[in-house]
Amino acid sequence: MFDIDRWQEIFETIRKNKLRTFLTGISVASGIFILVILLGFGQGMENGIRKEFEADATNRIWVWTRVTTKEYKGLNPGRRIELSNEDYANLNTLYKDDIEYKSDLFRIRGATINYKEESVSYGVNGISPNYQQIENQSMVLGRYINYADLKAKNKVIVISRKIQKELLKDIENPLNEYVQLSGINFKIIGIYSDAGGDREEDRVFIPITTAQNIFNGANKIANLGFTVKPEDNFDKALAVSNQFTDNVKRYLQESHIVAPDDTSAINVHNAINEAKRFYTLTSNIAAFFWFVGICTIIAGVVGVSNIMLIIVKERTKEIGIRKALGAKPWSIIGMILQESIFVTGVSGFAGLILSMALLEVVGPNIEVDYVLNPSVNFSMAITMVIVLIIAGALAGFIPAWKAAHIQPVKALSHE
Length: 415
Known about the structure:
six-stranded mixed beta sheet, transmembrane transporter activity, ABC3_permease_C, 415 residues, elongated, transmembrane helix, Macrolide_Exporter_MacB
């Protein structure tokens, strides 16, 4: 039931002790403010890292080779290991049950891209159709390389939005236009975009069979790309991915006669391991932020408790008079708790509103690597304030309990 007299007493006490109440409120508000800001930046780091991994499939695996560094089975170090179509075909056959998407890649060195009088120099790669899924590319216009292109060794090309703007300029629909790669005509069949942004759009793609045939690639491959089939949970996906990685490396080492402990000749990069490290890092940082924020809030709540103890001591004689006139213990407890909850609640909401407003205004404009749009879920923020109010009630309970059980005679004689 709303008791206007009780509220008048609370406001009168606050009015008499403005500075003390203000400083107490500042300690509580700063606690919730710091916690929300820290959690917001923790979420921003998670958003930023997730954005980085959106550039490619999280479960992708890339294979590339270099030179051997160790003697093995009578073969000297310094041999350059080269992947081949046979390696790609054998791996697809051996581990077809584990593979979701697959693509080989052949790099064309020194090729220039020409359109009429315009000329640019970007990466030219021969690929298979699944490369689109591995690199998380989407089509803006037209289509991607398909298996019919591979079989027929078609002279077709897929370019990026960035290259379209720079090379074809004002042509809105460049499909079926022809560009030249080192003097050879290729028909544009599609425009792609990459989740990684412009830095991932510095490449054009043609069928790998065409690339090997025209640019003297024979059966050579520069890279192999795979993604493993999705699993029910992250830990299982990590285990399957690591097992597949080990199998691929072991097969290539055996087929190319490479020492098992030669870490340079056969290289396999598993993106899910990198993702795990980053997500573990963000989880640890978030836990640290929670710890710091909660400690700050506890400090504020302790401040409220100390202030309530002081208030009880100052009002001891008043409380004694109330008890002498028949005030029940729970009415005394309610009076102290109500003031504690009011100061904590108002301060908590002030800190919440200020921190949320700051994140809303500043967050979208932050341009820091691995931090993207720091924010806090509103329901979580409200939950934190409710917990803070409960903590404020607990902070006021001990002083209230002490006040409720004071002897009227002692209270009336208190100076």
